[in-house]
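Supplementary Methods S3. Input chains for the assembly prediction are listed below.
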Amino acid sequence: MTGRDGGADLRPIGNSPVVVLVRPQLADNIGACARAMANGGLFHLRLVAPRDGWPQEKAWRNSSGADRILDAATVHPTVADAVADLHHVFATCPRPRHIVKPVLTARGAVAELRQICARDLRAGLLFGPERAGLDNDDMAEADALVRFPLNPAFMSLNLAQAVMVMAYEWWTAADDTVPRRLMTNESQVATKGRLDNFLTHLVDQLDACGFLRNLPKRPGMVRNLRHLFQRGEVTEQELRTLHGVVTELAIGRRRRGRLETETEA
Amino acid sequence: MTGRDGGADLRPIGNSPVVVLVRPQLADNIGACARAMANGGLFHLRLVAPRDGWPQEKAWRNSSGADRILDAATVHPTVADAVADLHHVFATCPRPRHIVKPVLTARGAVAELRQICARDLRAGLLFGPERAGLDNDDMAEADALVRFPLNPAFMSLNLAQAVMVMAYEWWTAADDTVPRRLMTNESQVATKGRLDNFLTHLVDQLDACGFLRNLPKRPGMVRNLRHLFQRGEVTEQELRTLHGVVTELAIGRRRRGRLETETEA
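Predicted structure tokens for the full assembly:
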């Protein structure tokens, strides 16, 4: 995955948008963009007039194995040339002004890109140079602008971070992982019946050792313990461990009890 | 905003999660993390045993003005020490295994973090070191793991990129920007009536010049033109321009017509 001889076995996944880096300055950043693209399942990279020329060894060194994306990247003299065969172009722009243009959030843009790509049209995403961003002529090539919702007090976004946000949204839009699940180590989440068995065991031992001897308070104390153990999912393996913990503590207590009795004797 | 003397005027925004970088290796990355935190409105940074010590000038140089976050960062010998005053801790982890733990998506984790913070509890987010990630003991300090949905063929995520995804989700969760809007340069979107005025003007001129002389085809041609202009929002300023375009083209044509007649004569 991070090997140096050809890098990860990356290839295009379905019809995905082309990332167009417009006049990028640093090869390091181009490599970091390729890495972010790989993270989000994007593959097609076009470079418009990279400042220091192309190819640049540094890009490969900084891509953490996203070599295939860099190997397949193409270089173009102008934005118009880079987008000539595309059907839709969105341009990322932190501070749009004085133009009449649809403005999309990152998530909104990706929702539209997913629809465009599902129709077998070719889409592109423009990212401006590190310092200046896209200029007015670049933006005139785009259908719409993309403006990430971010802290207005600090909008300075690294180029690869901008690509990361779009790549992450691209991947997430087609991902159906549930927001929360319990990862268990082969063991299953215990049923209520199994949990009740353990709680009965616990209460029996607490009765035996005298912890619940205050009878008026006993029902409330038992309920509070039940509430605690009901709060999260407990696995069968964990219940077995808890049974063992209670048993061993009780035996230990009885042994200590014997020792103390012997000592007193 | 990206000044070097103290950087951007950043401060905590409400009750936001603490970012805990566990055994970070490179000061450059710590700076990049601070920048990403600022982008997403996070402020509180804690460093557990940074490899090269702290402070490191490089972090400030690479934070693009997120100096205040670095100025306020605290250093801790262990994860346990760094999270001792927190109520909830989530740990980012790309490849969790062999533990029983809730696993959240980035968006799912942020939804829960927003609820925790709204209850005035203190939450923390652990990020592991660049190469190895969090170890098993680190993860045992956490309530739950966070695993970003990303391309399984390329999970190697830069530390600052991981922070960026969480910071972006944090900001986005409280952001209500509409997914698509039309940015207009003071001009308003034209009403259907204004658009109809223009289309009537256009059709009048096309009748005058003979473009619509095929009477059986005329209704369909007019409708197709109307469909085209109805497809997107048009502003009042743009309609004024379009009126001018049609008028000038028509005048030009009449002038050329005169010239041609004169030449023929």
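DSSP finds ten helices and eight strands in chain B. The first strand of chain B starts at residue 18 and ends at 22.
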